[in-house]
């Protein structure tokens, strides 16, 4: 089963694609969707277009997106929420089942500790997926963590 994890943002949207075969997880792809941040409508269109390309390339069975649980920067919460809407609509238009996880759930799903730091989560992602080099940018590492959390949480019998 192929799972797409997405870490929403405005100018950088992290994505991570993993494959689950029985209890083994492997990394197929990761990176970012880059936006210029100067024209919201262009950024929305670019995000949908780039996400559609990823969906065609990898044909994921599931997608997982990080929920906005607590946001320190009030100026960007609306912009990130709008971009989440574009992401969710694109997934819905492609009939990809969507799962959402809070940052706490992602940290627990990857490191078994909800207060784990970014370094600890990244180290666990690399260990779980067998990636030797540091995952850059951090948004892509976060997206892989979201995909792993989904893989570990998904139960086809609870649908």
UniProtKB/TrEMBL annotation:
One Pfam family hit: RuvC
Positions with a binding annotation for Mg(2+) 2: 66
Active site: 7, 66, 139
Cofactor note: Binds 2 Mg(2+) ion per subunit.
GO MF: crossover junction DNA endonuclease activity; DNA binding; magnesium ion binding
UniProt key word Chloroplast: no
UniProt keyword annotation of Acetylation present: no
Catalytically driven reaction(s): Endonucleolytic cleavage at a junction such as a reciprocal single-stranded crossover between two homologous DNA duplexes (Holliday junction)
EC number(s) on file: 3.1.21.10
Cofactor: Mg(2+)
CDD domains xrefs: RuvC (cd16962)
Top EC category: hydrolase
Source taxon at top rank: Bacteria
Gene Ontology cellular-component terms listed: cytoplasm; Holliday junction resolvase complex
GO BP: any one term: DNA repair
PANTHER family registered for this protein in UniProt: CROSSOVER JUNCTION ENDODEOXYRIBONUCLEASE RUVC
NCBIfam families recorded: PRK00039.2-1, ruvC
Family to which this protein belongs: Belongs to the RuvC family.
Function: The RuvA-RuvB-RuvC complex processes Holliday junction (HJ) DNA during genetic recombination and DNA repair. Endonuclease that resolves HJ intermediates. Cleaves cruciform DNA by making single-stranded nicks across the HJ at symmetrical positions within the homologous arms, yielding a 5'-phosphate and a 3'-hydroxyl group; requires a central core of homology in the junction. The consensus cleavage sequence is 5'-(A/T)TT(C/G)-3'. Cleavage occurs on the 3'-side of the TT dinucleotide at the point of strand exchange.
HAMAP family in the record: RuvC (MF_00034)
Name of the protein described by the UniProt record: Crossover junction endodeoxyribonuclease RuvC
Organism listed in the record: Candidatus Yanofskybacteria bacterium RIFCSPHIGHO2_01_FULL_44_22
């Amino acid at each position: 089963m192929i799972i797409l994890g997405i870490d929403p943002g405005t100018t950088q949207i992290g994505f991570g694609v993993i494959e689950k075969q029985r209890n083994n997880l492997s990394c197929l792809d990761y990176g970012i969707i880059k936006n210029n941040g100067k024209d919201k409508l262009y950024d929305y269109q670019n995000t949908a277009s780039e996400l559609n390309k990823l969906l065609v390339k990898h044909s994921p069975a599931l997608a997982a997106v990080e929920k906005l649980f607590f946001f320190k920067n009030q100026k960007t919460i609306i912009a990130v929420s709008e971009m989440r809407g574009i992401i969710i609509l694109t997934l819905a238009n492609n009939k990809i089942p969507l799962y959402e996880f809070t940052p706490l759930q992602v940290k627990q799903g990857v490191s078994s500790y909800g207060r784990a730091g970014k370094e600890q989560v990244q180290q666990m992602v690399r260990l779980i997926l067998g990636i030797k080099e540091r995952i850059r940018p951090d948004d892509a590492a976060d997206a892989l963590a979201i995909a792993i959390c989904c893989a570990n949480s998904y139960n086809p019998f609870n649908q």
